[in-house]
Design brief:
Layout (H helix, E strand, L loop, with lengths): L1 H18 L4 H18 L8 H31 L8 E6 L5 H13 L3 E6 L5 E6 L5 H20 L1
Antiparallel strand pairs: 1-3, 2-3
Helix pairs in contact: 1-2, 3-5, 4-5
C-alpha cells in the first residue's frame, strides 16, 4: 500500500511538472488521474487495500466537510438571531471504534465541528463524552455521530 501511495504521489508531481500548472486543482486532478491509471494497470487489484481505502478516505473527508459547513451555518445563525435557540448538554456516546487512532480521529472531528466539543474518553475506552450546543434528542444526537463520523472512520480503519 505504501509503495502504491508513493507511486501515486510521484506520478502526480510528474504530471504537475509536465503540465506546468502548479495550482491546487491540477495537483488534485493529477492525483485522481494517476490513482485510476495505477488501478487499471494493477495486477493485484483484489489484494490491494490502497485502491479500497483511498475512496473511503475521500468519502470521510467530504462528509466531514459537509458537517463542518452545516455546523458553521447553524452556529452563525445562532449568533445573528436575538433569541437563543440552543439546548446544550453533555452526552455519553458509546464507542464501537477501539483503536487509539480511531478514537483520536473521532474526537478531533467532533471537536473541529462548531457547536460540539469532545471532553473526555472513559478509562476503558468505551464511552466518549461530548458537549453539544444542540441536544434536542439525545438518541438522535448519538445516532448521528455513530452513523456519521464513527461508521466512516471504522470503514477507513478496517
Amino acid at each position: 500500500m505504501k509503495n502504491q501511495f508513493l507511486s501515486n504521489l510521484l506520478l502526480t508531481f510528474v504530471w504537475v511538472a509536465l503540465t506546468g500548472d502548479f495550482s491546487v486543482e491540477n495537483y488534485i486532478f493529477g492525483f485522481f488521474l494517476n490513482f485510476h491509471i495505477l488501478w487499471l494497470i494493477s495486477v493485484k487489484r483484489k489484494k490491494s487495500t490502497y485502491f479500497l481505502i483511498v475512496p473511503k478516505i475521500i468519502i470521510l473527508l467530504l462528509f466531514f466537510l459537509y458537517e463542518l459547513i452545516k455546523a458553521n451555518i447553524e452556529v452563525a445563525y445562532e449568533v445573528i438571531t436575538p433569541k437563543l435557540n440552543m439546548t446544550p448538554g453533555i452526552i455519553m456516546v458509546p464507542l464501537d471504534v477501539k483503536s487509539d487512532i480511531g478514537i483520536t480521529l473521532l474526537a478531533n472531528m467532533i471537536s473541529l465541528t462548531p457547536g460540539t466539543l469532545s471532553l473526555d474518553v472513559s478509562n476503558d475506552k468505551k464511552v466518549l463524552f461530548v458537549h453539544a450546543m444542540y441536544v434536542d434528542d439525545r438518541e438522535k444526537f448519538i445516532r448521528g455521530i455513530k452513523d456519521g463520523f464513527e461508521r466512516r472512520i471504522l470503514e477507513v480503519l478496517s
